[in-house]
Design goal:
Elements lengths: L3 H9 L1 H8 L9 H11 L1 E6 L2 E6 L6
Antiparallel strand pairs: 1-2
Helix pairs in contact: 1-2
């Protein structure tokens, strides 16, 4: 059975669709995942159509 999420992932990222369809999730305990989540909290997103651009709050290197 396919859902709207399957269709979204098909057009966004086929690899993400493959992982989602097989119920494979990100390693939540991984140090690299924790670092990525930490940096993501300090980002602003600009969304134009289906494109997301991440920008650091306060500029780069501050």
């Amino acid at each position: 059975m396919f859902t709207g999420t399957h269709i979204n992932y098909y057009f966004t990222c086929p690899r993400k669709l493959w992982l989602f369809h097989r119920s494979i999730q990100c390693e939540q305990g991984s140090d690299l995942v924790k670092i990525g989540k930490f940096y993501h909290e300090d980002l602003d997103e600009i969304i134009i159509d289906n494109i997301k651009i991440d920008m650091m709050k306060g500029g780069y290197g501050e």
